Amino acid sequence: MLPSVFVRLWSAQIISVTGSQLSQFAIPLLAASSLGANEVQMGFLAAMPWLPYLCIGLPAGVWVDRLPPKMVMVAMDMTRAVLLFFMGSMFVWHWGQLEWLYGLTFLLGVGNVFFELAAQIMLPQVLPASQLLEGNRRLQSSETLAAFAGPGLAGVVVAWVSAALLVFVDAVSYLFSAFLVSALPHRQSQAKAKRSVWHELLEGLAFTWTQPILRVLTLCTALVNVGRGMMMAVFVLFVTRDLRLEPQILALIVASSGLGSFLGAYFSAWLTTRVGLAKMMIAAVFLVAFGGMLLPFAAQMKFIWLMVFSLLLGRFLSGFAAVVFNINQVSWRQRLTPLELLGRVTATARFSFWGLASLGSVLGGWLALTWRIVPTLWLSAGLIFVAMLVLWRFLPLEYKE
Fold this sequence. Notes:
With 401 residues, the chain is mainly α. The chain has one domain: Growth Hormone, Chain: A (Up-down Bundle). Helix content is 84%, strand content 0%. Helix 9 crosses helix 14, helix 11 packs antiparallel against helix 12 and helix 12 runs antiparallel to helix 15. The radius of gyration is 20 Å and the shape is globular.
């Protein structure tokens, strides 16, 4: 039985991630339909939420280690709500430009960096080590359930009202999240601001690099996210422009990824117990790569139903396997890392994961414009397959069995 304080944290996350799924569906759709964004511009837009991890991800870990996590989470929820209200107004009154959208999505990414780091620190403070895997599983389950339900709801709203409305709904969800987080008990961060930011930043980097398991997981996950960043940058254009499928079908395809993610979160503990931790993670990365290969394969289909089935299966498998891998690597990192270093180590991981994902998005947009979208999708899947080989080759032998 998980404590009630975790339930409040979990409830806040359920509300905010459900709203976020709506705006994540709406923003690229609005950029393509209302602002006429091309492949490179869509790549830059896809990179903007992840670019803050590359720009400020490492020092953010030091700062968050020095601050009360609850205060950081509430402040970031309120900030993101204001930014989204501004973004929604931009589209409703037709005065927005692509440059404004870049800036707003970048600032939303800054809020995500600080909020997620604070939440990672908060979780071991509200749960004992023996319940961390279950806590992460439940948090991931709610996020993936939102990823399943969100795009379907978004497709209905886009068909009957407006994509801009989804942005306002996300803004309101952050206000509800801030209210719930504010009810959490106040716990001061254990780290003390006695040394320079640079010294503490290097301490987090050094721990990640010298801990063999964390080093391998960080390298593997970084490669996976570069590949997925390339894919996500061009996927909306691939489906709506190249394959000429309707936005409602796009919503169904994205929802299949959410369904796979939800089932992955639900069965991750069961699968890991029976297969073994390292073997399960290697198999999961392989399935992410295989699912990615089914996306460009859909372009070869002559019948629409086969095309849609290939896209549905590809996104489903990738969503399922990515969550199984992510739950295990997050829980592993939390158990291996001392609490006073957790913010910096988590920041190092997210700098590697999401920072490089932003570069992957830009690379994917550029390759799609110069080399076409289908070869870019094949390349992104191949890169994830390389990540699986890295995990298999360099994971210490004692963790393979």
